TrEMBL record:
It holds the Pfam family CheW. The keyword NADP does not apply. This is Chemotaxis protein CheW. It comes from Kaistia defluvii. Residues 12-163, 154-297, 320-462 form the CheW-like domain. It is found in: Cytoplasm.
């Protein structure tokens, strides 16, 4: 025991020499948890300049601090450009990651001429006082059965194009959506409707061609997505065309399909038809229950070990949570799918609102209602790229106020196990409260910031929107 105490006392006096802006500094070795190469860092919009973002540290989201922006300048010429190729995970009010240029050595520190770095003092003013450590509880996902002015008697649909036609699946039937991987494992002697198999989070998911299932020709060069639905206790991937977004269609605009129009070559059937409203074309609504009436598909699935069973309209209890993944500039975010009213393409004509803040692009007409539109590239200080050629508007309802958010693209619907979602650390800056949770994505452990829809508009901006929101008859049709 005495030897162990002596060893700990010896370690407590050692120093780690690190390089910041080309200069050597000393850190107390007993506070260093790990040293490694610069990992994938997720930027936090509207944060302080010294906050590089968040990184994944053994499943926890921890802040990454750019020390080059905090160390005091010294006389004797300009410092060397900071390369920030290394990171030191440091124990200061919990784990924080310090971006540095390099690590030199671990010494006793007595003979070193380098300056000792007081990390606590550097971080105190900007980080710990601005963002107290006890963070708020992560917000719960929105109630999918909530009743809002935007909902009414409408049906939420995930829409996509297939062979030049518009189709949709009820959003409640969709587990997740992803782009069709470049490599798909084929099946020997597979049915004409079978595309193959992919591995999705350690599960083998069979893929079925919707075009073949519906007797349609495959469009060459068309971007293809995989819409994952549940078939009993199994997951099935429906290979569709280009994802066009989420749309809410009034129930009064949905009609049954005349029997004479149903295809006779297979058992798969269209469930209903959503009539257009002048801006939206006819949409053929599909349901898994009718799609999997196809005998060939059921035989192929049975051959892959999938049990035949009645297909429920939706899963009654799903422990996973679904997020709409969207991009703003070079950054990727997730929004709970339950909070999304619909996704539309940004119209060419937007009604401007006099004297409104710069981040309010104007208003657009959504089914006869004037909806304020916020430019998220400006709000999130987006970096990289020149903006999307065809930006999208994600329409959400917050505290009975409906608003649209302009984003560059909507890429997928991601299903995340609840156990893989972590609370975000408390962060300084105006953006710290917007992102209440994080999750990892990809092999590099990069994190996705999960947006809290209730905090997407802070109180002042809500008041401004209410003040400047026009009546529906003043909005120009989009």
């Amino acid at each position: 025991m005495a030897g162990a105490k002596a060893r700990i006392a010896s370690e407590a006096g050692r120093k780690l020499t690190v390089v910041i802006d080309g200069r050597d500094y000393l850190l107390p070795a007993e506070k260093v948890l790990e040293v490694g190469r610069r990992p994938a860092i997720t930027r936090v919009p509207n944060s302080l300049p010294a906050l590089a973002g968040l990184m994944n540290f053994h499943g926890l989201a921890i802040p990454v601090i750019r020390l080059s922006g905090l160390v005091p300048s010294t006389k004797g010429g300009a410092p060397a450009p900071s390369r920030e190729t290394r990171v030191v995970v440091y124990d200061e009010h919990g784990a924080v990651a310090l971006l540095i240029d390099d690590v030199r050595q671990l010494t006793s520190g007595k003979a070193s001429a380098a300056q000792s770095l007081d990390v606590a003092e550097l971080l105190a003013a900007q980080f710990f006082e601005a963002a107290p450590l006890p963070h708020r509880a992560a917000s719960q996902p929105a109630d999918p059965h909530r009743e809002t002015e935007a909902d009414g008697d409408t049906r939420a649909l995930l829409s996509f194009r297939l062979s030049g036609q518009h189709f949709a699946l009820p959003l409640e039937n969709v587990a997740e959506v992803l782009k069709l991987p470049a490599e798909v494992t084929g099946l020997p002697k597979g049915a004409a409707t079978s595309v193959g198999m992919i591995v999705l989070r350690e599960d083998v998911v069979p893929l079925v061609s919707l075009a073949a299932l519906l007797g349609l020709a495959e469009a060459l060069g068309e971007t293809r997505h995989v819409v994952v639905v549940h078939f009993g206790d199994e997951r099935i991937g429906l290979v569709s065309g280009l994802l066009t977004g989420v749309v809410r269609v009034p129930e009064t605009s949905i009609d049954p399909v005349p029997a004479i129009l149903q295809r006779g070559t297979g058992d798969a059937e269209i469930d209903a038809i959503a009539r257009g409203d002048g801006r939206r074309p006819l949409i053929s609504i599909l349901t898994p229950a009718r799609l999997f009436r196809n005998r060939e598909v059921r035989a192929a699935l049975a051959g892959q070990g999938v049990r035949e069973t009645d297909m429920p309209d939706h899963r009654a209890a799903d422990p996973d949570q679904r997020f709409l993944v969207f991009a703003v500039g070079d950054d990727v975010f997730g929004l709970p799918i339950e909070s999304v009213d619909e996704i539309v393409q940004l119209p060419n004509a937007i009604s401007r609102v006099p004297n409104a803040p710069d981040f309010i692009a104007g208003v657009i007409n959504i089914r006869g209602k004037a909806v304020p539109v916020i430019d998220q590239r400006m709000r999130f200080q987006a970096a990289g790229g020149l903006g999307a050629k065809r930006p999208r508007v994600i329409v959400v309802t917050i505290d009975k106020l409906q608003a649209g958010f302009i984003v560059d693209s909507v890429s997928e619907i991601l299903m995340v196990p609840t156990s893989a979602i972590r609370p975000a650390p408390s962060l300084p800056g105006n953006g710290g409260q917007i992102f209440d949770r994080v999750t990892t994505r990809g092999d590099d452990g990069a994190m996705i910031l999960l947006v809290d829809p209730k905090e997407l508009l802070d109180r002042a901006e809500r008041d401004l929107l209410k003040r400047f929101q026009p009546t529906a008859d003043t909005a120009q049709p989009s």
